[in-house]
Amino acid sequence: MKLLRSFFGFLDWLQLDWRRVKVKPFVSNSRGMLQQQLPRIVLTDPNGSSAEVLLYGGHIVSWKNQRKEELLFMSSKAKWKQHKAIRGGISACFARFGDVGSVEQNGMTRNRMWSLDRDPSPLPPINDHSSIDLILKSTGVDLKTPRSFELRLRISLSAGNLILIPRVRNTDNKPFSFAFSLCNYLSVSDISEVRIEGLETLDYVDNLMNRSRFTEQADAITFDGETDRVYLHSPNKIAIIDHEKKRTFVLQKNALPDSVVWNPWNKKAKALPDLGDDDYKMMICVNSAAIDTPILLKPSEEWKGYQEISTVSSSYCSGQLDPNKVLHGFQ
Ligand SMILES: O=P(O)(O)OC[C@H]1O[C@H](O)[C@H](O)[C@@H](O)[C@@H]1O
Q1: What ipTM goes with this model?
Q2: pTM of the model
């Protein structure tokens, strides 16, 4: 009884409808080694899809479709360790991205405890069961710069769609600039069978070549080795085609002009302690980001981004997918 009372008290604190949003104290055993005691929120959609969000890092650790198939990659060696980001899922990297400068690689927002945001204004308050608003305030955060900010993330689940709306507010008395990335680890059947369309002909920064700039020559991005690139001024719609699964992720974005494409391949995978040796075959990171031109915010100003991922089934058409159909035809 005492346990039940504290459970409903916790829901009350979260201001969630207990019939529709579940809060579980443990991360599911089925997600690799992520069995630590981390509060998570489970969003469900009437058609059967679901998403699991940790307050730690505001991290989305699972997104399942109506058929209960997992759409996000989670490392087989994923573990929770204080001050470390979880390898997999979707997380928001704020303030910096890449290993430039003296602050933490890919920002510190992935390894701090976020809270439920009771006042998401000026976004309208959430009145449906498949969304949640999270907030991370700079108070108490040992970040060198920016000093004072509020980082918000709205996560909304609907039939076949996962929508993220990140926002950053400058609560300092002087301007600051920042880089931002939504790091999406997508689950794929076999990286050698994956093709990304929408990034062809773009300029990119190659992180594996001392950040030199190149222009993409291929008519689609395919993978046969380590890849770590920032595609500049990428279109607002990108298709990630998994030939073997006959599934296409359609990634739409706004106010996030760059796209990071990362796969560590075998050598780097072995060097990463929280990634299984063969895990690289089942993942592709396609991040929606603002890196090349940092975002500048004056005091009290707010920046708002947008990302929507959906899946459509795709099939071969004489050995090739029609990129126009993938990018424009499946609405
Ligand atoms: O190990 P992490 O900090 O999570 O970074 C993982 C990867 O994220 C990005 O996609 C970067 O482009 C890579 O350079 C980096 O190695």
Answers
A1: 0.96
A2: 0.86
